[in-house]
What we know:
This protein is an all-alpha fold. The chain has helices at 2-29, 32-39, 44-50, 53-69, 81-97, 104-114, 121-143, 149-168, 171-178, 184-209. The chain has 2 domains: 2-61, Arc Repressor Mutant, subunit A (Orthogonal Bundle), CATH 1.10.10; 71-209, Tetracycline Repressor, domain 2 (Orthogonal Bundle).
Amino acid sequence: MAQREDGKETRSRILGCACEIFAEKGYQTAKVADICQLAGANVAAVNYYFGDKATLYTEAWQQAFKKCSELALPDVTGTSPEEQLRIHIHSLLQNFTDQSDRGQFTRLYLMELTNPTGLIHNIWHELIEPRRQIILEVIRSIMETKADDEAVFFCEMSIISQCRALMTTRPSDMEYMLGQPISSDLIMRLADHITRFSLAGIKAVVKRKA
């Protein structure tokens, strides 16, 4: 029993360190030896518990997403679609700027965007699609009867791209351009701005289709 518990602990430790190293260096640059050194484990342990580096990477994605998902969205019951959009945008911005372990998924995602591995295609759909559908339904509700799939997708892409600016710009550069540190109050104000900007854009799309 003690050996089994030690094995579970070793596996968990390797997985946690893999999330950290892959998020920092990306799949191609990260070395299994570095992960094992950080975890205090033998390199052979990766093959034993995960099979290979690729499997370790996909499991690190799942682990990081699980941590990210612990930041539950506030209850939006009874709120308008416009307010639901603001809540989702604020949640995205919080996730994109979270420097704790819960922010590892965002950093993994950015690494995958810049250097695609082709390893997480199926996992991506499995993990992200359910949350994505929530935002799409909110956009459809705002657009009402004028919502065709292409228009909804274009609006979603525009909203997500605005939010990604925080993820793809170095914090020091963002603070320089803004002339102030990134704070929770700033994130809230930015969420409000992106919401207003996006709602105006959605209304313009609806008007054009009318």
